[in-house]
Amino acid sequence: MVFPAVIAHLNRRLINPLVSRLAGSTGSLGMLEHRGRRTGRLYRTPLMAFPAPGGFAIVLSYGEQADWLQNVLAQGTAMFTWRHRRFVLAHPVLEHGTPEGVSFPRWARVIMFLVQANTSLVMEAREQAAENPG
């Protein structure tokens, strides 16, 4: 039982615009930039991410049918802003259970248990070099 579709819809319309202001700058909250698989449009999705060996793990609290996930799997790459740093994400892999080398904080494990989210997206990350302003 992942979050129901109605919660996902409310989250996308109400919560995401508010959370987007903090995403990428604090805690485990990051901002994923991905292209639509049909439209090619750029989307920005705030997500909770946790360090994994060589990259990040993102818990799929809305399940494997989430649009952002389908876009990333189709594209194979995405941009990610986390703690004021930008990363190029690549090589998406779905992992059931806790991915090896990932230590989810207690509060995240509680949420994962409550919504029975036991799948994560794990992606390799390479930090994007800061652009030289001059």
Key descriptive features of the protein:
134 residues, alpha+beta, Pnp Oxidase, Chain A, 6-stranded antiparallel β-barrel, 37% strand
Task: Summarize the structure in short.
With 134 residues, the chain is an alpha+beta fold. The protein has 3 helices and 6 strands, in the order αβββαββαβ.
Could you explain how this protein is built, in words?
- This protein is α+β, with helices and mostly antiparallel strands and about 130 residues long.
- It has one domain (about 5-20, about 30-125): Electron Transport, Fmn-binding Protein, Chain A (Pnp Oxidase, Chain A), CATH 2.30.110.
- About 25% of the residues lie in helices and about 35% in strands.
- The protein has 3 helices and 6 strands.
- It has helices spanning about 5-20, 65-75, 105-115, and strands at about 30-35, 40-50, 55-60, 75-80, 85-95, 120-125.
- It has a 6-stranded antiparallel beta barrel with strand order 1-2-3-6-5-4.
- Strand 2 and strand 3 form a beta hairpin.
- The longest helix is centred in the first third of the chain and has 15 residues, at about 5-20.
- The radius of gyration is 14 Å and the shape is globular.
- The model has no long low-confidence stretch (mean pLDDT about 85).
